[in-house]
Design brief:
The chain is 76% helix and 0% strand. The protein is mainly α and 268 residues long. The protein folds into two domains: 224 residues, Glycerol uptake facilitator protein, CATH 1.20.1080; 33 residues. It is a multi-pass membrane protein.
């Protein structure tokens, strides 16, 4: 249960601070009757999502692994690094956390027509259709989940994993926000879409299906590249083997030296 609570909190923070930054940034420029510089707001929103992941990774990471994303959990399941029971529990907790965050934003901003929801067509800054957004989300999620699987599989990366994952999510948002607001996370899309309703809810399936496909593809590639036969990281450490061999060869010498010392002691 502790893991599920951690995932709820992590996804709440990610959605509240990420989507909340998007709503706040756009609201400020609209209130000023100024043209919204897309590049500026894109950076603000991208870093809000990325830093949210970094913050959660170093706070709840040791409890649940800080997936806070159904695509990551499904990718972990497909990679053989998670049980079906935990995967279902994680996804449910993540979706509830994102929904709670969307309700929180609705209460804070006093309106629910814009809560950082994803969209295509007229809702896309660049006007991309559903087909293009589907491909885009698959590719972006593939990259993100592959990075997550890779950096969390090596002990030497453990201390920097949260930072690497957070910066990767920042990069993906910088690229993807002008297209569809960037999802790569079904829960993050689910919460705002449920509260906003209308077109956001009608378009939601794309932002659930595409990230899940991307996560599974990343897991398949991970299993192909990071197997015992194909990944040097999984192979025995040559230096360690040499050290063990040297230690094994030295043992008889040490034993002989001990016997000689005992013999000298008896003679004396």
């Amino acid at each position: 249960m502790r893991k599920y609570i951690a995932e709820f909190i992590g996804t709440f923070v990610l959605t509240a601070f990420g989507c909340g930054t998007a709503v706040a940034a756009n609201s400020i420029f609209l209130s000023m009757n100024a043209a919204i510089p897309v590049a500026f707001t894109t950076l603000l929103i991208a870093f809000a999502f990325g830093l949210s992941v970094v913050a959660m990774a170093y706070s709840i990471g040791n409890i649940s692994g800080c997936h806070i994303n159904p695509a990551v959990s499904v990718g972990m399941l497909a990679a053989g690094r998670m049980s079906v029971k935990d995967c279902v529990g994680y996804v449910v907790a993540q979706c509830i956390g994102a929904l709670a965050a969307a309700l929180f934003l609705w209460r804070i901003f006093g309106a629910r027509d814009s809560l950082g929801q994803n969209g295509y067509g007229e809702a896309s800054t660049l006007g991309l259709g559903a087909g293009s957004i589907l491909i885009l989300e698959i590719v972006m999620t593939f990259v993100f989940v592959l990075v997550v699987l890779a950096v969390t599989s090596r002990k030497e990366f453990a201390s920097a994993a949260g930072l690497v994952i957070g910066l990767t999510l920042t990069l993906i948002h910088i690229f993807g926000i002008p297209f569809d607001g960037t999802s790569v996370n079904p829960a993050r899309s689910f919460g705002p879409a449920i509260v906003v309703g209308g077109d956001a809810l009608a378009q939601l399936p794309v932002f659930i299906i595409a990230p899940l496909i991307g996560g599974v593809l990343a897991a398949l590639v991970y299993r192909l590249l990071f197997t015992e036969a194909g990944n040097p990281a999984e192979e025995p450490d040559t230096d360690a083997e040499e050290v063990r061999e040297d230690a094994g060869e030295a043992e008889p010498d040490e034993a002989d030296a001990a016997e000689e010392e005992e013999a000298d002691g008896e003679e004396r």
